[in-house]
Design brief:
Blueprint lengths: L6 E4 L6 H12 L2 E4 H10 L3 H10 L7 H14 L6 E4 L5 H13 L6 E6 L2 H15 L7 H24 L3 E5 L4 H18 L1
Parallel strand pairs: 1-3, 1-4, 2-3, 4-5
Helix pairs in contact: 1-8, 2-3, 4-5
Adenosine monophosphate (AMP) binds next to helix 2 and helix 3.
């Protein structure tokens, strides 16, 4: 079986994961798995999963691991013939990262790399407030929800970077600057890797 390029795009809310993942997908021809987008889609269709997730999302809290992992498993297993996946907003806890490793192992694949976008907290809050004006996302609208999301990130998600660092799979990229400049720095890391798969 052909080895895939499987990436985890990591960073706090507002780090630019959505923007950079679009560019990465186009260049490397990857399948996007954004758990936030998948939840919003479920919510729009008022599925049971969407309504369950909404109870957490509305407060800026993380959705429980079993729900997230089940949804990602369905998406991976229903995707045929891909060059690889870009996971955006997932894994957000260490148990999610462990479950992802097991899942990929079961299809003879693995995570190639985690790219972590670093942005100072003050800038993140500013970006989220700006995004609120155009995104229509209720969780971008109020400062208390933004604060909870950043706290959830610090408490539960930051250890995920250590998890991949211990596997020698963590690359840190400065997420402040021009979009194309940041993308260029990401390509410098991914181009050689893409030639190897
Ligand atoms: P995002 O669009 O990635 O900012 O996600 C929006 C919301 O969806 C988050 O604040 C969480 O409530 C939920 N969510 C998205 N991805 C995950 C995940 N991997 N684990 C738990 N909750 C998630």
């Amino acid at each position: 079986m052909q080895k895939q390029l499987n990436l985890v795009l990591f960073g706090p809310p507002g780090a630019g994961k959505g923007t950079q993942s679009e560019k990465i997908i186009e260049r490397y021809n990857l399948t996007h798995i954004s758990t936030g987008d998948l939840f919003r889609k479920h919510l729009g269709q008022k599925t049971a999963l969407g309504l369950e997730a909404q109870r957490y999302m509305d407060h800026g809290k993380l959705v429980p691991d079993q729900i997230v992992i089940g949804m990602v498993e369905d998406k991976i297993k229903s995707t045929k013939n891909t060059n690889g996946f870009i996971f955006d907003g997932f894994p957000r806890t260490v148990p999610q990262a462990e479950a992802l490793d097991e899942l990929l192992q079961s299809v003879h694949q693995s995570i190639s790399l985690m790219i972590s976008l670093e942005v100072p907290e003050k800038e993140l809050k500013q970006r989220l407030r700006n995004r609120a004006k155009v995104s229509g996302r209720t969780d971008d609208q109020d400062d208390a929800k933004i604060q909870t999301r950043i706290e959830e990130y610090r408490e539960k998600t930051v250890p995920v970077a250590t998890y991949y660092d211990n596997l020698d799979k963590l690359v840190i990229i400065n997420g402040v600057g021009q979009i194309d400049e940041i993308f260029g720095n990401i390509c410098n890391v991914l181009d050689p890797l893409n030639e190897m798969v």
